Amino acid sequence: xxxxxxxxxxxxxxxxxxxxxxAILAASHLIGPRRSGPVKDIPYESGVDPIGDxxxxxxxxxxxxxxxxxxxxxxxxxxxPWAVLFLKVAQGSIADVAGFESLGYGPGFLAASVGxxxxxxxxxxxxxxxxxxxQWD
Amino acid sequence: MxxxxxxxxxxxxxxxxxxxxxxxxxxxxxxLLIAPVPLVWLGWPWIRPLLESQFWFSLILGGLxxxxxxxLDAAFILAERKxxxxxxxxxxxxxxxxxxxxxxxxxxxxxxLKEDYTPKQADKPVFILAPALAFVISLAxxxxxxWFDQITWPWTGPDGETYTVVGQMASLDIGLLYLLAFGAxxxxxxxxxxxxxxxxxAFYGAMRATAQxxxxxxxxxLGLLAVLLVAGSVRLEGIxxxxxASGVWNVFVxxxxxxxxxxxxFAETNRAPFDLAECEQxxxxxxxxxxxxxxxxxxxxxxxxxxxxGSALVTALFxxxxxxxxxxxxxxxxxxxxxxLIKFSVFWGKILLLIGLYMVxxxxxxxxxxxxxxxxxxxxxxxxxxVIVVVQGIATGLxxxxxxxxxxxxxxxxxxxMLGINIxxxxxxxxxxxxxxxxxxxxxxxxxDVIVPPAEARLAR
Lengths: 137, 461
Known about the structure:
heterodimer; A: mainly alpha; 0% strand; flat; B: mainly alpha; globular
């Protein structure tokens, strides 16, 4: 059950934090001095004149990390509801979760299905490892 | 002729002398501590209904927590400088106030008075948005930390009813997922700052930080999964209560998952030895190179708040949360106001201990190289996390679990089994590590051997 009222304090907290951050930024913007010059406006590169923009190409491996993260993290998040359910079913403290047991799906089914899911995850992980994706040096 | 020394301003000298006196600082502290008491006493008729309603109590608690976190952040800066000074045999800040105690105040004033500079080449809206975003996201986790379980107020209503409030700002069904979501979102502050600065140091710092935070999010998630398999709830208060009821904190039976989460926490907050994103020797200051004044201060606050929230997460999941003593269920069923106060203080005490650990680690260990960092995440911690989850899943399926209702012998057996399995896995990891090749030295392995000519040949040239 998703009760919207439960989230009211969270929304108020977030709004208050945004206000605090805005107030801090506004205060330093109003109080601090402002001096500008041609040299000051150059990007800081330890005193060396910068060559070109910072918006340039970067190593594709950073992109690869992002894709891997998406795959793994989403798969792990899928396991969270399972973990909670699995404990309750294994304990027998849930008689019938959404008609699970009456369909014949007991703890064994839960374990086997996630075992298969985890096997796929591990197989993908080993494949990536052997393909040299985790080679950063 | 002796050089002309400007005569010190008598008023400034007087203020300086006064503030360096420990009695003045003690009196200031005492006033700050005692000042709320008469205010609460005078405003009691207005405060009481606020304490009785869960909604207003949540807001008071949240405001208090944010207040504490922000002020602790300032105190941590002094504490960290003092600790680093102690480790490096220096004195540390000792000019502003007695023992440097007013240094955070001086820092705050200076942050305000410095120029709020936005570089010409920067992407202005994003440049301003990034520190605010980092700040908001790092503190948002305060909402679901269970500071204590609940308090039943000693007074009763007109019809003799009692008032009970929960020591958590919002008791969400998604609990842990909320913290994970905001933990993952903290990448945005960093990557937007680096991108918007349009500075190469900042950009590379942001790229590194992103890759690092994403990589360590996965072992963190796996370590938490192992806890969920024994707690049976994603609500943080449920996880804490299951530990407090039996007195067996998760760290005693799942030390490996604890280590995974702790190390991932170090990496998530970009603290040494994982501070590749702001590696001074290579990247000046990393993603906040172009930031100054309060924008920089917001990044600083965000980093320390992230540490506090991360420590609170580790405390709630592994260190028994508000439970004061291990191996007893002392105070677990006591809902008086003083018990609530003790639990609140105990929770903060555990957070402070963990942050002390963060600081000692920062000033003790050298920094990783980037390939070592990524190898530790992907080839070390993620496989280890997967093994832990599988083992814990099997154990849960077999019913090996600490259960407050079960006799203590059964709990001892289950806990001992889990601890034994953890030790076995640790031994396995150590064995694998000892089998691996001599220290991997990164890229140098692949380079052809450089032949250094003998000294005579070089001199002859």
